[in-house]
Hints:
The protein is mainly alpha-helical.
Amino acid sequence: MTTHMQQPGLRLLPVELLYEIQLYALSPALPCLSQFFLDIFKGTPISFRVQFLLASCTNILTPSHTADILSKALRYPLCTLPVLDQLYIKLEYLTQSESPLIIPHDSKLGRRTRTCEIPRRIFRALTSRKDGQDWRTSDEPLPFIQHLLSKGSNFPAFDPNSHQGYALTRAVHARHTPLIRLLLQMGASPTYKEGMAVKVAIKQKNLKMVKLLVERDDRDGSLLPPGLAKAEAQAQKPQKGKRRRLEDRIEVDQSMLKLAVKCNAGDIIDYFAWEKGVVPDMQTLTSMTSMRK
Length: 293
């Protein structure tokens, strides 16, 4: 009588060996095979996650720039702040050991050097608060971004305009004012996608938000980490004498005025027409006249 021996499956392997298999395969599907594997990989230690991210975000054939590695790593939900901190340490070690796989960041190049993307995933779930309360500086993802900025000049700067201004537009959509201020202080521009962020604020009939996006104000308290805040203040420090007027972040145009009229946002219409000097086209002027009657 012949008996067939059952082949041991992956479920019978030691957890440590499963980790090794995943580091070799780098398969996004393996943790999703079943609830068993999902539970296994949810419990992975930080050291494993750092190894996985490095293996996933580098190429053994082509050296990778530190900025590119961080940009790719941050797209993974498993790249939490504790994991990111250890990844920084690992990258710093590899850089100092002159690893052929890592192109180090050169802080001497300043703003001209390559920057990191801020991942869309940390802004995707942003919506307006349902409890009617104002957003605070302790509300995510603001602390996450501040943590990214706290690493100093040894690592690449983060680009607040990643993905064509996605972060700023989502923050405006959620009315997350502290986050908007931080992004603007980082250098975020509301000009992307034909001023999409400003148009969202117009549709909300939020004059205060519109002004925040359009006008610069060097008196606004900085939300940047101390080192960056000091450098930014020095860069924008006016010369002695009369306080200079700062240039607007975006030029208000007829399309924005037309949208304000369409939304019946009277205070924004007045701001655009009288303070910013936007001249309406005939159709918009007719609508404005009808509104005044």
